[in-house]
Amino acid sequence: MKAKDKIYNAVVPPLIARLEAATPDNPISPWSKQWRDDGSQSTAILMGARNGVSNRPYSGINWLILNLLTDYSNQNYYTLNQLKQLTGKDRPIPDDQWDRSENVVFFKMIDTKEKDSKGNPKKMPMMKVYKVWNHEQIPGLPVKPIVKAPEFEPKTEVDRYLANLKLSGGVHLGGDRACYIPSQDAICLPNEDAFYDKYCREATAAHEGIHATGAKHRLDRKSHKDFDMDKGFNSYAFEELVAELGAAMICTELGIPLDNLQHTEYIASWIKRLQDDTDFIFKAAAHASRAAEYLSASLENDHTEPLALAA
């Protein structure tokens, strides 16, 4: 037996068994949001069109329609029902604005009554077009105050890692999302006091920092052959696993407890890939290790005093 096969047999089967044993009542570290919505807005999120009630930014074809094909200065859009609730009027939209709505698309995969070969419901796409109006089209619509987030100032070691990535879009605080935005080369994090504890915040920041290392001008992770995902595996899920493993490595290096890491919700995809490809977990771990090393190595030329984890 080859040395690699011995390692695989020692590591992977127990991991598969643990993942397969997970149930809704007995999950293995399911993803859960580790912060509360404090009502603030991230400056990165404010750059584009969003739903004026949920503050959720539009994406895909909706992003194109509302950001590039309209000329409103206000980023907020509302459905008819939302406008009725906000204004208390049955006819909140002026007659001359009714036909000047924008059509946006809602897309969702839904279960059908048919079953696949494994007995699971087959899925089909559901698409619905609905109308939205811009804030500027509705007279008397209450202006929703924006709680401005503070500027990002490195306070911890992980913060310094992010700052030294030299993100062209910077690090944006505030809002109800934690994400890396490749198109802007920017990271969004909720405000520090929105997290349930300091370790949740550090683990989340490390996770997004690992994502940022995959940019083309850094480790160019998306172009790697390991992301040529055949056998039905989703490259997004693989990237999430890389980010989670990398965040765990960063937290271990800094002495941060791992209990609150945001373990990805793609466990089913992991199981399939682990079963189909014996190298999968090693590929993910190798990418995660390179990403963690890249992130921490960003301080090699930084000779300022180390920053302690915020109390």
Radius of gyration: 23 Å
| Shape, per Cα inertia axes | globular
- Largest beta-sheet details: 4 strands, mixed
Beta percentage is 15-25%
The pLDDT mean sits at: 79
User: What's the β-strand tally?
Assistant: 9
Number of helices: 9
| Number of domain units | 2
Instruction: Summarize the amount of helix as a percent range.
Output: 25-40%
Task: Going across the biggest sheet, name each strand in turn.
Answer: 2-3-5-4
| Classification by helices and strands | alpha/beta
Please write the string of helix (H) and strand (E) elements. HEEHEHHEEEHEEEHHHH
Provide an overview of this structure.
This protein is an alpha/beta fold. It has helices spanning 3-20, 60-68, 80-87, 95-98, 157-163, 198-213, 235-254, 267-276, 280-297, and strands at residues 40-41, 50-51, 76-78, 102-115, 121-134, 147-148, 170-173, 179-181, 186-189. The strands form three sheets. It has a four-stranded mixed β-sheet. The longest helix has 20 residues, at 235-254.
Please write out the topology.
Blueprint: H1 3-20, E1 40-41, E2 50-51, H2 60-68, E3 76-78, H3 80-87, H4 95-98, E4 102-115, E5 121-134, E6 147-148, H5 157-163, E7 170-173, E8 179-181, E9 186-189, H6 198-213, H7 235-254, H8 267-276, H9 280-297
Parallel strand pairs: 1-6, 2-3, 7-9
Antiparallel strand pairs: 3-5, 4-5, 8-9
Helix pairs in contact: 1-8, 5-6, 6-7, 6-9, 7-9
